[in-house]
Structure formats: structure tokens, C-alpha cells
Amino acid sequence: MSPRALLLVNHHARQGQKRLKEAIQCLKELDLDLIEESTENPQRLTEIIQRYQNQVDLVIIGGGDGTLNAAVDGLVDTQLPLGILPLGTANDLARTLGIPNSLSEACKIIAAGEQRRIDLGWVNGKHFFNVASMGLSVKITERLTKEAKRRWGVFAYVATALQVIWESRPFSAEIRMNGESISVRTVQIAVGNGRYYGGGMAVVHDATIDDQRLDLYSLEIKNWWQIILLLPSMRQGKHIKWREVRAYQGQEMEVYTRKPRPINTDGEITTYTPAHFHVIPKAVSVFVPPTPQS
């Protein structure tokens, strides 16, 4: 009997509408029985997943990190395994899991059936896969239009980031963890659960999405041009070795600011400081590339 899958594709994702037919054909050829649902409003994804939880064996989501984040509560609630079709701009969760951007290859990974339990981050009641952050990344999210992402892809992130960096100003924050309180002047605080975010930047060089820890860094530069020097290291997650970067690891942490600051989770602004973060180990199951045979 063929596995029954709920297929949810974000039509507004960079490649969503254009590649929907290709995805459907590929999955059917791999003997998956599909129930297709429209997702014009990503905020309804959890409700749709809950409605079908007793009728399907898995959920397949086509879109980017924002679409996956919108569905995460439904996946936690139903414990249905997740198949990912990377149709967004950055596809950082797919990159973390080793899922290629090739649609046919992503479909084959789902059909092969190998699953992996992964951790989730949690901040103020909101789950996240990749990173929750405040400062520069929030300003980039606010400036980055859907049209720019669709047209220019990852290059839209770069152009917007450079503009935001030029205008960046430090803010004061207090980080609390392990019974310590640390006061900082920073342009960005990021708390990572997975490895990649922001179109391929690494939170920390050795981060994995099932290491049962969160990785925090605070970017404490005084001049805008310093971040240009840091960027190559940020691609590899080695920026934490720089003097201007403060880094911590832990299962739980808090961040306080003088006035509420918006927090970006997986590319969407979803909550504000004060922020309480913790990791939820092995929270959901995801289809991943088969483990190489030794």
C-alpha cells in the first residue's frame, strides 16, 4: 500500500507555483498517494495538518524556511514525519539536513523513507528550526520584499544586508544563562538550533540540528565596516573566534533589552524581547538523505 502524503506547497515561495506540477508528477511516479491542499495563507498550515492527521502517513511541504516555520506547530502536535521540497529562497533547513535543491532528488529522499529526529528551538512559545535573532537580521527581514526574493534569490539577501549594515547602530542587551548575567553592546544576537541561516551563513562551525544545544553569538562591532571583514568567517561559522564576537552554548538562555525588540525566527518576525530560549531535543522527524554505507 502506497504511503499517503499531505502535500502543502507555498504558491508564493520563489519556485512554488512554477514547480508545483513537476513536484506532483515526481512524487506520484515514486508511488506516493497525495492529498493536495492549497496554502495561500501560510498561517493556516498548522490547522490543515491537524485536520488531516488521521488520514495521512506524512506531510510534504514545498517552500522555504518561512513556510516550514509556519507549519512547525502542526508537525509537533501531530508527530507526522516531514518531507521537504526546497522551493524557497534560502532553504537553510534543507541545507542543514543535506537535502539538495534538485526537486527530483528531494522527492527521491522522501520516497526512500529514511527519517531523522531533529531538535527544535523555542522562544516565547514559538518553535524554530534554524535561528532566532534580533538586530541586523530583523532589519534585513523588514526590508526584504517577497518580490526581491523571488527575482534575485540569495543575492537579494546580500544587497539588503549591505544596506542595513551601513545603517547599523549597537543596542544594549543582557544575556542570562547558567546563573550568569552578561551585559553587552551589540548589533546582533543570534540563537541557533540548526547550522545554517540567512542564505547559507553558519551559526557555529560544528553546530548540528540534533546536538541538543543552542548556540548563541553576539556581534559586538563598533564600526559598520568590521562586519565586511567578518562575513567570510560567518559563512563557515568561524566568526566566533573573532574578538568582536561573544559566543555561548547551552540548553536554555534569556535575553533582555531596555525596550521590546522584535525577534526573527526562521526569517519571520514572530515575537519580542524579553526572550526566553530553550532547546527541545528530538522534537520532530524529517526525511533525510540515506546514510552512506561504510
UniProtKB/TrEMBL annotation:
User: Keywords in UniProt for this one?
Assistant: ATP-binding, Kinase, Lipid biosynthesis, Lipid metabolism, Magnesium, Metal-binding, Nucleotide-binding, Phospholipid biosynthesis, Phospholipid metabolism, Transferase
Listed GO CC annotations = plasma membrane
Q: Which Pfam families match?
A: DAGK_cat, YegS_C
Name its GO BP terms in alphabetical order.
Answer: phospholipid biosynthetic process
Q: Does the keyword Mitochondrion apply?
A: no
Q: Which NCBIfam families match?
A: PRK13057.1, YegS/Rv2252/BmrU family lipid kinase
The name this protein carries in UniProt is: Diacylglycerol kinase catalytic region
Organism annotation: Tolypothrix tenuis PCC 7101
The record lists the lineage as: Bacteria, Bacillati, Cyanobacteriota, Cyanophyceae, Nostocales
